[in-house]
Known about the structure:
CATH architecture: Clam
Number of domains: 1
Strand order of the largest sheet: 7-8-9-10-11-1-2-3-4-5-6-12
Shape: globular
Amino acid sequence: MTPPRTRTAAALAALLLVASACSLGEKEEWAETVRNLREEASAATTARVALTVEARGIEITGRSEPEALFSELAGEADFAAQTARLDVRAPKERRGTTLYFDDLAFYLPRSEASEGAQRWGRMDFTVEPEDDIATRDVNESIGLGMVGPSAAMLFLEGMLTGSIERVTSEELDETQTAHYRGRFSRDQAARDIEEEERREGLLRLLEVMGVSADLIDADVWVGVDGLPRRFILHLEQRLDRNNLFGLTLTYDLSDFGSDVDVELPDPEDTLIPPRFSEFVLDYLRVSV
């Protein structure tokens, strides 16, 4: 005959296994919801987008506290075409600047002080650069919100089931949402991309940004219609052994299915610089 204490322990263990299975099943459902957001946004085709960029120092030696080059942007995205146009709203001295995104390619206007007649610079991370990525390239990426809305949702496809939790229910833009928090694996997100050029491009984008950690924190708000309403990427940018910076990218999405026409710059009016640092400096360069 089995002792009562043994039977109780066995029953408790069984209950814990059942509770664990239920919990994991629930987590898998939440994680799958987040992983499918890019597909859901593509089906809705378009949306209005606001992007907020926050930069901060985590470990700083010999440098000042970083500032976001563009801290507030707003515009529109065509998720079906994987393009976006965002206008800079802040800081004040950068107003009037427009950024374009084409999947894993990023456009910046070129300064009038830069050489050449082309008005736009284009950096396509799916193209392997002639020169290795260097510290000077990462330096120019500190505090720069250079991840377009479509590319940002690629990362969410790497959401890890065991990490996700449902925080609360909230109303955003008059829409009821569920707020999830978890971690995504950049390597898992890249592995799920079929095209090798895009897979390598996603990892190259992070390398230029100095993001070396595989696991990255994210917050996601999903509407009752299954569409993403807000998501936040919490990135850490490592410049060198003495300097580590935090970069928070907050994307707010609204008006899905609205009339949007993102017309990218003319290729003949676009210059492709040899490396990322020159791409950014072409924008920042001033007349002397």
